[in-house]
Design goal:
The chain is built from 34 helices and 16 strands. Residues about 80-85, about 100-105 and about 710-715 have low confidence and may be disordered. The strands form four sheets. Strands 5-1-2-3-4-16 form a six-stranded antiparallel beta sheet. Strands 8-9-7-10-11-13 form a six-stranded mixed beta sheet, sandwiched between helices. The chain is of the alpha/beta class and about 800 residues long. It is about 55% helix and about 10% strand. It is elongated, with a radius of gyration of 30 Å.
C-alpha cells in the first residue's frame, strides 16, 4: 500500500486511510485528511523535511514521518473522481423542533462570540465592527486570548468577544479548549462563525461542530472578494437553508457586509430569521443509534441537560473526548453515562473496523462535501497552473534559495534599522541637545536645573532618539507577519528546530521575540506539547527584543560606526545560535518528551496594506512613548537622585559620582563585573535594566553626563560621551572605558542576561509556576556573566 511519503513532487493521491493514534490522528483528520480526499505534493522544504501538500484548496505542511501514516492510491495527476463528490455516508440533516425564548424576555443587549479557523479574519472583523485596533497578522496564532469590545447598532448594544482561532472544538490544544469552554460556560447569545471563503470545505468542519452544540449561529463568509476573483460561485442562501444557519458574505478588511451581518444577527436574536432551523447532521443509522442510547442517560441529569446539548455531549463521548468525560465527573449518573458511551464506542469500532472519532470526522466531511456539491460551483479552469503564492514560494521556500533568502531578509532588516534610522535619530538628537541648552539657560543653577538637564533630558532623551530605529524594525516585522512569510519561515526552519528538540511552530514565537518577548511568550500557547511551550519560553529571551535595540545601536554607533549594521546582525545571530545550543541541552536534561507532530497551514500571501503597517508602527510608537513617560522617566529621576546626593552641586561631578549613593552601589558590584571589562557605571546600568532594557541607555545618559563646564556650549550626544569616557581611578586610570572589546562584551551581556520584569511575569503566567520564571532569571544571568567573561578574557590575550 502506498503512502503520502511515497508520492513525488507534483504527484497526487486519493486518501484511503489515516493510521496512527491520539492527538495527531485526530488533528490530521479534522484538517481534511480523510478517506476519499485528493491530496497533491507541492514541494519539500530546503532541508527536505517537512513537505508541503495541497488538500481542499489550501496548503499544509507535514513531516515525512507523518506522511508515512497516510495511505493513498496514487493518481499520477489524473483523478478518476470528480472534485466535490461527497464522501461515502452522506446522509444530510434532520430537523428537531425545540422551543425558543420569547423576544420580549431578552432586552437590547446581545452577547456575541467570534469563532473561526486561524487566519480567517476574525480580528479584522472585530476591529472594523467595534473600532478596536487589536493585532492582526497573516499566520495562525496571532490571537491567543479573548478580546472584548462593545458597540451599538440599530438600538442594540453588542458585547463582542474575539476568540482565538481554532480548527475544531476538540481538546487538542489550549486554544481549542478555551474556545469551547467560552461557548459552553459563557453561553453567548449568538456565535458568529467566520469562514475563509477561499477554503470553505475545511472551515465548515468547525461549523458542523457548532451545529452539534445546538446554539444560535450566524456565518460570516469572509474574504468573499478573493473567492469571486477566482471565478467561483456559491449559492450561500441555499447552503444556509440546508444548515439552518444564515450566511452573509463579508470582506472585513474593507468593511463590506459588516452592517448587514449585524442586522442579520439582530433578526436571529429576535427569532425573526426564516433560515434559522434546529437541525442535526445525520451521522448514519449506527452512529445515531449510539448517540440516542447515550442521550437517554445524560437527560436524567436535568441540571446538565438544561445547560448543554445532550446530543453534543454524546458525540464528544463517542469521540473519546477526555475533557467532556472529566466534566461529567460530578453527575449522579456519571457511571451509567460513561459505561454506555464505552459500550457504544466498542460496538461501532468493531462494526466498522475503524476508530469511532474517525467515523464521526468522516461523516462530517461527508455532510460538507454533499452540501457543497449542491451549492458550490468551483471554476476549475480558473485554478489551473501555479497560484500567486506558489510562484513566490518557488523562490522563498526553494531548497537552494530558501535559507539564503531568509538570512538576507534578516540582514536587510537590521542594516536598514541602523542606517536608515540614523538620519531621523540625528535630527531628534539635535532637538534633545537644543532642549538641554535652552533649559540650562532658562533655569538658575541648582538641583532643579540639574534634574531637568542632567537627569530627565539626558536620560529620557538618550532613549527617545532611537524611536525611528524601533519603527523601522517593526516595519519589517509587520511586513513578515502580514504577508504570510512568517509561516514559511517556520516551514523552512522545521527540520533544524526538530534537531534542537523543538517544534517547527516554535520558530514563530522566536521570530516574534525580535519585536517583544512578552507577546511572543503568549503565542507559545499555540504549541500543543507543554514541554515544547516551556522550552520555547526559556529560550525566547535570546531573541533580542526591540527594548535591547537602543543599547545595541548606542554601543555599535560609538565603537563600530562603519560596520554597526553588520555587528547588530551578528549579535542577533549570536542570540539565535545560543537559543539552539541551550535548547539542545535543555531538551536532553529537562524536557524529554515524545515528538509532537508538525501540522501547519501555509496561508496564501497577501500584500500588506500601507494603512495596516502604519497602524502597527504607530501602536509601537505609542507604547514606546508611554514607556518614556512611565517606567523610564521614574527610573531616570531615581537614578539622578542616587547620583546627585549626598554631594549635590557643592562638589565636582567626578567627586559627586564617587561619593553618591549610586557610586557606592556601583563600587559594591564592581569586583563582580570588572573581569568582564565593565566599570561600575556599566554595572549599575545593568542592574537598572532589569526593569526595562531601555533603562540601560537612560542610566548611561545620567551617569555618563556631559562634563562641559559651560552649559551654554553644545552638549555632546551620548555616543560621543561614551567614546571619550575614561577610568578616573584605579590601575586603569586615564584609559578608555569603552574599547571595542569591552563594548562587545557589554552587548553580549545585554543579549543574554535576565529579561525585563514584564517577560518574567509573562513566563510565570504562561508556565503556571514561579519556579520557571526564577529559573529563567538565574540561568540567563549566570550564562551572561560566563560568556562575557570568556569573551573579554580570551580577547584580552590577543589585543
Amino acid at each position: 500500500m502506498s503512502t503520502l511519503f511515497d508520492l513525488g513532487e507534483g504527484d497526487c493521491g486519493l486518501i484511503t486511510k489515516v493510521r496512527g493514534r491520539g492527538a495527531f490522528r485526530k488533528r490530521i483528520t479534522e484538517m481534511g485528511f480523510v478517506r476519499g480526499k485528493e491530496v497533491a505534493v507541492i514541494k519539500s522544504a530546503p532541508l527536505q523535511d517537512p513537505v508541503e501538500y495541497k488538500i481542499m484548496g489550501y496548503n499544509v505542511s507535514l513531516r515525512q514521518s507523518e506522511a508515512r501514516l497516510i495511505e493513498v492510491i496514487p493518481l499520477n495527476g489524473d483523478s478518476s473522481r470528480e472534485p466535490g463528490d461527497p464522501l461515502p455516508g452522506y446522509k444530510g440533516t434532520f430537523e428537531e423542533s425545540v422551543p425558543r425564548d420569547e423576544p420580549s424576555e431578552r432586552g437590547k443587549i446581545i452577547d456575541i462570540a467570534l469563532v473561526g479557523n486561524p487566519n480567517c479574519g476574525k480580528t479584522t472583523l472585530f476591529n472594523y465592527a467595534s473600532g478596536s485596533h487589536e493585532r492582526v497578522g497573516n499566520f495562525g496564532g496571532v490571537t491567543v486570548d479573548s478580546k472584548t469590545a462593545r458597540f451599538r447598532q440599530n438600538g442594540y448594544t453588542f458585547n463582542i468577544t474575539d476568540l482565538p482561532g481554532t480548527y475544531s472544538l476538540s481538546a487538542y490544544s489550549p486554544e481549542e479548549l478555551f474556545v469551547r469552554r467560552h461557548i459552553t460556560e459563557g453561553i453567548p447569545d449568538i456565535v458568529v462563525n467566520i469562514i475563509d471563503s477561499s477554503n470553505i470545505e475545511r472551515n465548515l468542519y468547525l461549523t458542523t461542530q457548532l451545529i452539534d452544540m445546538d446554539i444560535r449561529v450566524v456565518i460570516a463568509l469572509n474574504m468573499f472578494d478573493e473567492f469571486e476573483k477566482k471565478g467561483h460561485a456559491l449559492d450561500y442562501n441555499s447552503l444556509g437553508k440546508l444548515m439552518g444557519i444564515p450566511v452573509i458574505p463579508t470582506v472585513s478588511s474593507k468593511g463590506e457586509g459588516i452592517t448587514e451581518l449585524f442586522d442579520r444577527i439582530i433578526r436571529v436574536f429576535e427569532d425573526r430569521d426564516p433560515v434559522v432551523r434546529h437541525v442535526h447532521i445525520n451521522y448514519g443509522d449506527e452512529i445515531e443509534r449510539s448517540i440516542r442510547r447515550i442521550q437517554e442517560f445524560i437527560r436524567k441529569d436535568v441540571a446538565l441537560s438544561d445547560r448543554i446539548s445532550t446530543r453534543y455531549v454524546s458525540i464528544k463521548l463517542l469521540e473519546k473526548d477526555e475533557d467532556t468525560r472529566a466534566g461529567l465527573a460530578h453527575s449522579d449518573h456519571f457511571k451509567a453515562i460513561i459505561s454506555t458511551a464505552e459500550k457504544e464506542t466498542r460496538r461501532l469500532e468493531e462494526s466498522f473496523m475503524e476508530d469511532s472519532a474517525t467515523l464521526i470526522t468522516d461523516a462530517r466531511y461527508g455532510f460538507i462535501s454533499g452540501a457543497l456539491k449542491e451549492t458550490l460551483d468551483a471554476d476549475q479552469s480558473a485554478i489551473t497552473g501555479k497560484t500567486f503564492s506558489e510562484k513566490i514560494d518557488s523562490i522563498l521556500t526553494n531548497r537552494l534559495l530558501g535559507f539564503p533568502a531568509f538570512i538576507f531578509f534578516l540582514w536587510v532588516m537590521f542594516q536598514s534599522t541602523f542606517s536608515l534610522g540614523n538620519y531621523p535619530k540625528h535630527w531628534i538628537d539635535l532637538g534633545v541637545t537644543w532642549l538641554g541648552v535652552v533649559a540650562g539657560h532658562a533655569l538658575p543653577v541648582g538641583p532643579v536645573r540639574d534634574l531637568l538637564t542632567d537627569g530627565i533630558i539626558n536620560g529620557v532623551g538618550s532613549v527617545i532618539v532611537f524611536l525611528p530605529n524601533i519603527l523601522i524594525l517593526f516595519f519589517f516585522i509587520s511586513l513578515m507577519e502580514d504577508s504570510g512569510y512568517m509561516a514559511r519561515a517556520a516551514f523552512i526552519m522545521d527540520k533544524l528546530m526538530h534537531k534542537m528538540g523543538l517544534h517547527g511552530q516554535s520558530f514563530i514565537p522566536l521570530i516574534m521575540g525580535f519585536g517583544c518577548n512578552v507577546p511572543a511568550i503568549m503565542v507559545t500557547r499555540t504549541l500543543k506539547d507543554r514541554n515544547d511551550r516551556l522550552l520555547t519560553m526559556l529560550i525566547n529571551p535570546f531573541m533580542s527584543c526591540s527594548a535591547r535595540l537602543p543599547v545595541y545601536l548606542l554601543i555599535t554607533g560609538a565603537l563600530f560606526p562603519q560596520h554597526a549594521g553588520t555587528v547588530i546582525f551578528l549579535i542577533y545571530m549570536t542570540g539565535i545560535l545560543l537559543a539552539v545550543l541551550i535548547s539542545v541541552i535543555f531538551k536532553k536534561l529537562l524536557f524529554r518528551s515524545k515528538e509532537a507532530p508538525f501540522v501547519m497551514e501555509l496561508p496564501p500571501y497577501r500584500m500588506p496594506t500601507f494603512r495596516v503597517i502604519l497602524r502597527h508602527m504607530w501602536e509601537k510608537a505609542q507604547q514606546y512613548l508611554r514607556k518614556m513617560g512611565g517606567v523610564i522617566l521614574v527610573a531616570v529621576i531615581l537614578i539622578w537622585a542616587l547620583e546627585y546626593f549626598p554631594g549635590g552641586a557643592k562638589v565636582s561631578q567626578s567627586q559627586r559620582l564617587q561619593q553618591s549613593y549610586i557610586g557606592k552601589i556601583g563600587k559594591l558590584v564592581e569586583p563582580v563585573i570588572a573581569p568582564l571589562g565593565f566599570d561600575w557605571r556599566m554595572g549599575v546600568s545593568l542592574i537598572t535594566g532589569a526593569a526595562a532594557k531601555e533603562v540601560v541607555v537612560s542610566t548611561m545618559g545620567v551617569l555618563f553626563s556631559d562634563n562641559t563646564p559651560e552649559k551654554s556650549k553644545a552638549r555632546a550626544d551620548l555616543s560621543s560621551r561614551l567614546q571619550t569616557a575614561t577610568y578616573e581611578s584605579g590601575r586603569l586610570k586615564g584609559q578608555k572605558i569603552f574599547t571595542p572589546l569591552a563594548g562587545f562584551s557589554f552587548i553580549l551581556f545585554i543579549l543574554v542576561y535576565m529579561p525585563c520584569v514584564a517577560v518574567i511575569a509573562a513566563v510565570r503566567r504562561e508556565s503556571g509556576h514561579w519556579k520557571w520564571a526564577l529559573f529563567l532569571m538565574l540561568y540567563t544571568t549566570v550564562l551572561a556573566w560566563s560568556l562575557s567573561f570568556a569573551f573579554y578574557q580570551v580577547g584580552s590575550l590577543f589585543i
